[in-house]
Amino acid sequence: MPESDRRPRLTPAVADVRRAVREAIDDVPEGALVLVALSGGPDSLALAAAAAFEAERAGVRAGAVVVDHGLQPGSGDAAERAAAQARALGLDPVRVVPVQVSPEGSPEAAARQARYAALLQVRKQEGAAAVLLGHTLDDQAETVLLGLARGSGPESLWGMHPRIGFLRRPLLQVRRATTHQACRDLGVEPWHDPHNDDDRFLRVRVRHQVLPKLDEVLGGGVALALTRTADTLREDAEALAHFAQEQVVDLVEHAEGGLSLDVGGLESNPPALRQRIIRLAVQSEFHTALSRQQTLEVSRLVTDWHGQGPIHLPGIRVTREGRRLVFVAA
User: Is Cytoplasm one of the keywords (predicted)?
Assistant: First the structure.
């Protein structure tokens, strides 16, 4: 049989996933290694296949890390099957890493923490330039909707970042249906995690009940709208963070046991920027993250000053002295 007959047909779904990976690794140095976080599910398997294809053409190496969380019977077999698929795709090295998931708190959060720790450890051991994660546009929409429901502030609506350090998410603009179709087109059989259909998990209920209902009521396009919102908020937040960083340099004076901020400079800024400057200054000096309510209390020393006494934050005392806010370790 001719080589062209054996080669998988390039379909729109396969092309979309490959294009996303190509853009994600376009700055990886020639000869460097990228690792795919592979569960064996449709998203990560489509990602692994695309990475194997694109890495070769980009002159970089592609490997895989399979994390076995040990949370269900047969997880070890599923991990070995995913590793075998990665090797068949031409990925090398392929590492299977068993992890211990803490029983404390949310099982989803504990599993995520254990997984990322394992991925970053293997990246360091192998000297990889990047780790590719298989989160899709649909995962992003679920994340934004959960953040909105929890009301935990604008940062929760940013969703997942396309890049944080060595972690890259090439598929955040690719639909879940596309990765499933890519696997079918390539003739690879993904593993379907039963946890993804378990309604005990909040994210599963959002995926199977909430988002479909929103699409039904609002006429579709909800996932795309949520991800566009996340992108816009993240861009705005990055701009505000840049301006806050510039302002802090001019407004901060370091003092014994802490720092002070110029009241006039804070007052001249709009609330969103003023509050970011306060949070940034405190985080930088005291390694403490202020809540919104705490930040607003400090801000009132600027905008609603009528001689009130000091504000006591965790480990910090804030007073207004003339035209400066003084922060000292309590």
Answer: yes
pLDDT, one tens digit per residue, over 26-73 is 999 999 999 999 999 999 999 999 999 999 999 999 999 999 886 677
Q: Is 299 annotated as a binding residue?
A: no
User: Mind listing the pLDDT tens digit for each residue in 83-99?
Assistant: 999 999 999 999 999 88
**Number of other residues whose CB lies within 10 A of the CB of residue 168:** 22
Compute the distance between CA of residue 37 and CA of residue 166 in angstroms, rounded to an integer.
12
Q: Is 199 annotated as a binding residue?
A: no
Is the preceding omega at residue 93 within 30 degrees of 0, hence cis?
yes
Residues across the chain: 330
Radius of gyration of the CA atoms of the chain, in A: 24
Q: Where are the domains of the chain?
A: 3-227, 256-329
Q: Which of the listed CATH numbers 3.30.110.30, 3.30.465.60, 3.30.470.20, 3.40.50.720 matches domain 256-329?
A: 3.30.465.60
190 is in an annotated binding site: no
For strand 252-255 and strand 258-262, is the pairing parallel, antiparallel, or unpaired? Answer: antiparallel
The reply, when asked if residue 43 is annotated as ligand binding, is: yes
The answer to whether 39 is annotated as binding is yes
Look at residue 1 in the predicted model and tell me its pLDDT.
Answer: 41
Question: SS3 of 149, please?
Answer: helix
Q: Which amino acid is at 150?
A: R
**With respect to CATH, is domain 3-227 assigned 3.40.50.620?**
yes
